[in-house]
Protein: Bacillithiol biosynthesis deacetylase BshB1
Amino acid sequence: MSDSLDILIFGAHADDAEIGMGATIAKHAASGLRVGICDLTYAEMSSNGTVEIRKEEAEKAAKILGLTMRSNLGLPDRGLSLTQAYIERITLEIRKHKPRIVFAPYWQDRHPDHIACSHLIQEAVFNAKLRNYAPATEPVNVQQLYFYFINDVYEADLMVDVTESYDAKIAALSAYRSQFVTGQDTVATPLNQGYVERVEARDRLMGQKRMITYAEGFVSKLPLLVDRFN
Structure:
């Protein structure tokens, strides 16, 4: 079996991809596509949980979603910046997995790491196709780069009907108990103050635009291509 992926999703932290497009991931994985997630950091600056706990939660979520692979580049949490070293690490990850489609966080968000991640992925997707960039590895021409929303939602270019796969998204988010559930040793953060419920309400509202129960929205910087209008 080929090691190449159909879809590769990048996030700054484990749980970013699940928040933004967990049901879309589950839907495509269940259909037989090879889907992977690459987290850029171990979220070591999180107010709740530990690196080891976050790793365990990410692995549990990966199984729920049906991922082919999940990796972590170990870049510094709250230290993401547009440096050549970080761009190269991400570029090589793209070349390793040869995805047809890449997803990145939308470039506007309340969390600076999500913004930085978005810009890093855009740079890496561009570099991945250049024959003379890191010539020891083969170039990869990603067919499409899409952006997903995490904390802040803007106007979507397209949406995916995820009604049938939405339970998998909620189950994957529930795997991150250290982030979304309050406990004796936790401190209050936006994530454990009804955040998952607000994400669900957001996805219901997105679906309402096309009279479906749940939808996840995405943005493309390139015009969407169709063969014809049906």
